[in-house]
Amino acid sequence: MKVALYARVSTEKQIENYSIPVQKERIYALCKSKGWTDVVEYIDGGYSGSNLNRPALIKLQEDIEQGLINAVVVYRLDRLSRSQRDTIYLIEDKFLPHNVEFISISETIDTSTPFGRAMIGIMSVFAQLERETITERLKSGRLKMVKDEGLWAGGAATTPYGYTRLERGQLVVNENERHHVRRIFEEYVSLKSYIKVQQKLEKEGFKPIPKHRILTLLKNRLYLGEVSFAGEWHKGSHEALITEDLFNAVQTVFEQSTRKNFGKIKNNVFRRKIICGECGETYLSYMNREKKSGNKYYYMICKNRKVAPEGGCKCTNRNLRRTTLEEEIFTRIMNLEAGDYQAPPQTKKPEDIQPQLEKLDNKISKLIDLYLESGLSKEHYETKLADYNKQKEELLSKSKESNYEQTAMEQMIQDGIPNLFECDLETQTSIIDLFIDHIIVHPTDLEIIWKK
């Protein structure tokens, strides 16, 4: 009997009853009582339960499909997922078809019994309800913070350039960056290119800022002394860094730039990024003219469909209207939210702490054995267990803090993705290059491979 131990926490600083060591302790105790000794651990530390985009869970599904797992055990149902749809999908489409039993200790759910299978749907409803209730409360709290108190509701990990973030989202001006922000707005009005602005100010000795952040900065009403929530702007409690006249002048330049580029062939936006899902060749851009109206239209076609490879057959994959392609890709990028893009784990050297974690796991296992078999006092057991768990959490926390670096994609999602339909060609190309590695054209849909 090969058993998969699955444990998850959404943050490293999880409450005691939900910490990974506690989950593992309870699961190992259950496995021991059933005589299961072949246990494989799948641990997702710091991942939300609102979706299935978790490294260990993905690996678990792959192993199940290969017939390597006979049972999956979790501490609580919401450790597997907080979405009713995802829970039912995993149970009915992954576990049961491969004869994998699913056991949740806290809810006493065991899918090897008819009652256990019936309870899955009921319990997953409450798990989803809990998640949605928490989300609604957080939204209400943030709206009050923004609308009534004028506080910034951005993430704690980032602060708008030009300000320092105090407790509860209070922003105060960073005097070392105040002049830089104002110069960026002023120079853009005259140079009309954020890349030229960046180059000029860097030559003058100003701190380098990524090009995409300059673009976001120039469109951000935060610098007018406003704060936003859910797309609506309100009077902020922080000091404005620019005047409304200067901000409006910058937006006028943006509008003029958009009109100037309207109707141009935008071949560079998706250069070498469109790949045929049938033959693997790249898609090329072409222009055609309708015979009756004389109107031009632009489309993309697989290279092997336009010109058959030597000794081979023409590809039969579909052509793409350029306007249709842009509409779908631009919309999907603009609709990205912080929870949608899951950056890959960025721990640079996991082996540095792995030996220490394994030693602590061994100590915990021995402690459990002593408690269950040798009459170890409950007080001594709980004290030692708490000490071991604290050591593990400190190791994981230090590792995450020292090695995690926010990606450029996460930063732009945090700052706000601009309206790509209103951007000039230069801006569109820069954002596409930032977010997308390549796009695979299938007969019925488009698959985006995001950059990591």
UniProtKB/TrEMBL annotation:
<dbReference type="Pfam" id="PF00239">
    <property type="entry name" value="Resolvase"/>
</dbReference>
<feature type="active site" description="O-(5'-phospho-DNA)-serine intermediate">
    <location>
        <position position="10"/>
    </location>
</feature>
<protein>
    <submittedName>
        <fullName>Integrase</fullName>
    </submittedName>
</protein>
<feature type="domain" description="Recombinase">
    <location>
        <begin position="160"/>
        <end position="260"/>
    </location>
</feature>
<keyword id="KW-0229">DNA integration</keyword>
<dbReference type="Pfam" id="PF07508">
    <property type="entry name" value="Recombinase"/>
</dbReference>
<dbReference type="InterPro" id="IPR038109">
    <property type="entry name" value="DNA_bind_recomb_sf"/>
</dbReference>
<dbReference type="InterPro" id="IPR036162">
    <property type="entry name" value="Resolvase-like_N_sf"/>
</dbReference>
<dbReference type="InterPro" id="IPR011109">
    <property type="entry name" value="DNA_bind_recombinase_dom"/>
</dbReference>
<keyword id="KW-0233">DNA recombination</keyword>
<feature type="domain" description="Resolvase/invertase-type recombinase catalytic">
    <location>
        <begin position="2"/>
        <end position="149"/>
    </location>
</feature>
<dbReference type="Pfam" id="PF13408">
    <property type="entry name" value="Zn_ribbon_recom"/>
</dbReference>
<dbReference type="InterPro" id="IPR006119">
    <property type="entry name" value="Resolv_N"/>
</dbReference>
<keyword id="KW-0238">DNA-binding</keyword>
<dbReference type="InterPro" id="IPR050639">
    <property type="entry name" value="SSR_resolvase"/>
</dbReference>
<dbReference type="InterPro" id="IPR006118">
    <property type="entry name" value="Recombinase_CS"/>
</dbReference>
<dbReference type="InterPro" id="IPR025827">
    <property type="entry name" value="Zn_ribbon_recom_dom"/>
</dbReference>
